[in-house]
Design brief:
One of its GO terms (cellular component) is plasma membrane. By secondary structure, this protein is an alpha+beta fold. It contains 14 helices and 32 strands. It has an 8-stranded antiparallel β-sheet with strand order 10-9-14-7-8-13-11-12. A 6-stranded mixed β-sheet has the order 2-3-1-4-5-6, with helices on both faces. Strands 20, 21, 22, 23, 24 and 25 form a 6-stranded antiparallel β-sheet that branches. Bound molecules: guanosine-5'-diphosphate and magnesium ion (MG).
Length: 597
């Protein structure tokens, strides 16, 4: 039957190891697009994504492949996001496959993120085919990387395919192996419909497009469907597949991957991981694994020009159409005025959204330091979840503050292990596992997320000369001696700089922060006092001296080019300045919390 000649697979690869280039080669070899259409990498649709080389939105393509056995096979190549923040989406994409290619750059080696995704694939019983890519590079070390795959991932790699997505070597061999090794989808065409939602996005013309993998039964226009977790009913208008161009088909049968259009008004109506079933003949149970994604990292975003506020709200609403994980609610700061508190899956997700707001919507935004969600138990026994330190109840109403801990796995060459351990210990980490394999070490720590949103990734890269990689997931809340630290500027509390810190670190971090603020806040016509305080107790104090009049005079008396330069510089700086009381404070000051040391 046709079902026996279907192969569903994903590519697991660390960023830059060649996933998109390889997918392009498959599309080319299967003749799905003309050369001109191939001019751009087709799987990455968004600009930012292309620039960063990260696939944000999962997309899937159907390919027709004539194998060496003379038979025609239908492949569904399911693209997965490549970053640690999107691990839930990755798990749903993998749940839609019977196999995966583990692609490792043969000149680099195995990275933590691919290990994590491989484990997810193994949990779903996927057949994994190891591929060593970039074999054309002189620096390629296939033997070493093979050993790493065996020792770190625990996968036999003696027969790993040597490939180059650049010169085309090994491509056909990979597709033959897909045919040989990856099982056809099982599923029962006669059973009630069960289709897993892999992704959903908003299209201006089509409305919500839902990408699904049909596990049992089939989907066709005219059918009434129901989302099993969401409990909503819709009428299927169209079914189709991406080749990668969208093409309508009369039905999506058991084992296939394709899209459904069903008059769903927003992606809320079809959440990733939910199950579609037939409303008149529902399946007895949903597919396993549905979970609502929760924002982990929060920041306050404020338009520099308060006239942009409404435009900012509209931009957030638009982005939210395609991003169920993006949260926002209005927030007012005494210091910064009207803005939004926004929630993200992680730091990279946050960076991507901020960049899109600035680039695609031309908004100048000021952001406060990212924080995590704290669980607070009040003296009345009430449980609060807060992401904004400024909203913390008064100390005498707090029984306990609990902070989120993550479980992280760090993969690092042995010679950088020492500095990595030191870093984790400094950040209040607790070692839970240490495993030596070949030249690399997999070290696992439980770490407060609060310490990770500071500058952990940057520090990890710098202490390991770029060699360490890491993945993480939320682990649990834990009570700790946490206190709120406030920053006062000329005696006035700057709410946007309030911060929750561990008591043992409070004094040192308070002193460091005050001294960094002193360097960041430009001299004004008067003296500026910077204080760090816990409750009523001042723990640090710095002063920005007043500007001397003659310095100003000298500047403006100078030659014309110098004067212009100065004015231009001032204008640029102005863009990111916020007037707080009488004091002008630059954007960098609001992020000063982020740098430690
Ligand atoms: P992705 O982030 O995994 O999707 O990686 P890309 O496909 O975007 O590739 C990252 C970079 O590696 C790009 O500059 C590619 O041109 C390059 N690249 C991909 N495959 C190969 C290969 O086999 N050999 C060489 N030399 N470069 C490659
Ligand atoms: Mg890519």
């Amino acid at each position: 039957s046709e079902q026996e000649r279907i192969r569903n697979f994903s590519i697991i690869a660390h960023v830059d190891h060649g996933k998109s280039t390889l997918a392009d080669q498959f599309i080319r070899l299967c003749g799905a697009l003309s050369e001109r259409e191939m001019a751009n990498q087709v799987l990455d649709s968004m600009d930012i994504e292309r620039e960063r080389g990260i696939t944000i939105k999962a997309q899937s393509v159907r390919l027709q492949y004539r194998a060496d056995d003379g038979q025609d096979y239908t492949f569904h190549l399911i693209d997965t996001p490549g970053h640690v923040d999107f691990s839930y989406e990755v798990s749903r994409s993998l749940a839609a496959c019977e196999g995966a290619l583990l692609v490792v750059d043969a000149s680099q080696g195995v990275e933590a993120q691919s290990v994590a995704n491989c484990y997810t694939a193994l949990e779903h019983d996927l057949e994994i085919i190891p591929v060593l890519n970039k074999i054309d590079l002189p620096a390629a070390e296939p033997d070493r990387v093979r050993r790493e795959i065996e020792e770190i991932v625990g996968l036999p790699a003696a027969n790993a395919i040597l490939a180059s997505a650049k010169d085309g070597r090994g491509i056909r061999e990979i597709l033959e192996q897909v045919v040989q090794d990856i099982p056809a989808p099982r599923g029962d065409p006669a059973a009630p419909l069960q289709a897993l939602i892999i992704d959903s996005w908003f299209d201006n013309y089509l409305g919500t497009v839902v990408l699904v993998r049909v596990m049992n039964g089939s989907l066709r226009p005219g059918q009434k469907i129901r989302t099993m977790a969401g409990g909503k009913e819709y009428l299927v208008e169209k079914t189709g597949v991406f080749t990668p161009k969208p093409v309508h088909v009369s039905a999506l049968d058991t084992g296939t991957v394709g899209f459904v259009i069903a008059g769903i008004r927003s992606i809320e109506g079809a959440r990733v991981g939910d199950t579609l079933t037939d409303a008149s003949r529902p399946a007895p149970a949903p597919l396993p694994g549905f979970r609502e994604v929760q924002a982990q990292v929060f920041t306050g975003l404020y338009p520099i020009d308060s006239a942009d506020y409404e435009r900012f709200r509209e931009a957030l609403q638009k982005l939210r159409l395609n991003d169920a994980a993006l949260q926002f609610e209005p927030e007012t700061s005494q210091a910064l005025g009207f803005g939004f508190r926004c929630g993200f899956l992680g730091l990279l997700h946050m960076e991507i959204i901020q960049e899109r707001l600035e680039r695609e919507y031309q908004l100048d935004l000021l952001s406060t330091a990212p924080t995590v969600v704290y669980e607070i138990e009040t003296t009345d026994g009430e449980i609060l979840h807060l992401s904004n330190p400024a909203e913390l109840p008064p100390t005498n109403r707090i029984r306990e503050i609990r902070e989120p801990l993550i479980r992280s796995n760090i993969l690092v060459p042995e010679k950088y292990l020492g500095p990595v351990i030191t870093l984790c210990e400094e950040r209040r980490g607790r070692q839970v596992n240490l495993q030596f394999t070949g030249g690399q070490v997999m070290v696992s720590y439980e770490l407060p997320l609060n310490e990770v949103v500071l500058d952990f990734f940057d520090r990890l890269k710098s202490v390991s000369r770029g060699y360490a990689s890491m993945d993480y997931e939320f682990s649990r809340f834990q009570a700790g001696p946490l206190v709120k630290m406030d920053i006062l500027i000329n005696g006035e509390k700057l709410d946007a700089l309030s911060w929750i810190v561990h008591r043992d670190f409070a004094e040192r971090r308070g002193r460091e922060l005050a001294s960094r603020l002193k360097d960041l806040i430009p001299r004004q016509m008067f003296e500026v006092a910077i204080q760090a305080a816990i409750g009523a107790k001042i723990i640090a104090r710095e002063t920005v001296k007043a500007m001397r009049k003659d310095v100003l005079a000298k500047c403006y008396g100078g030659d014309i080019t110098r004067k212009r330069k100065l004015l231009e510089k001032q204008k640029e700086g102005k863009k990111r300045m916020k007037q707080v009381g009488r004091v002008e404070i630059p954007q960098e000051a609001f992020l000063a919390i982020l740098q430690t040391e």
